[in-house]
């Protein structure tokens, strides 16, 4: 089994199947630090240009590819059957799509332990519905310039988890096919009585936050002045059911306490 799609890789591991190869394995490990070690898993190179010669030598049973990928299906199909993961970039609710994708894997790889793992995740999600006290929240990914941020809304996994627990997304503007938009930070100055969640991307986020400590512009944002800034645990915005569940649980606990 080989995974160019990270959400597919996360879901496979959740049901007890460790892929023989994953694209950008270092990035995957950093983004999915909650997963066990993948000893023996091979790095296929970048997600947009994986090493097809290496992939061919590995002879995987199947290749999991993002549904939105521009990679050649015909070329990959010459190596192994291609399975598309449609959690991201295809519209709809990514959390619901993540569950449907996990269930499809159980059809291909039936096992009592895998079924139990997905059932437990589904039950955890069900228990979180409407758990947080309603309030508007911005979901942000920090960028190298403090004048711009990525804001996540409907159509993204973080935005889906936010709505699932009963919170309101403070961003009502347009977003791209993956449910986020790049906006000027000045737009945050206009929003009072709003909380901000910074989606933690490990070292990158820590570096950006350190820069913001001395930013008068950032300090002028109402949520920052009011101390209504929350940094999430490391979360992959392009994850699967495990990522959706753990992020939703954190949101429910954080905003139950903060309300």
From TrEMBL:
It comes from the Bacteria. The keyword Amino-acid biosynthesis does not apply. Its main location: other. Residues 1-259 form the Fe/B12 periplasmic-binding domain. It is found in: Cell envelope. SUPFAM superfamilies: Helical backbone' metal receptor. Keywords: Ion transport, Iron, Iron transport, Signal, Transport. PANTHER family: IRON III DICITRATE-BINDING PERIPLASMIC PROTEIN, IRON(3+)-HYDROXAMATE-BINDING PROTEIN FHUD. Belongs to the bacterial solute-binding protein 8 family. This is ABC transporter substrate-binding protein. It comes from Mycoplana rhizolycopersici.
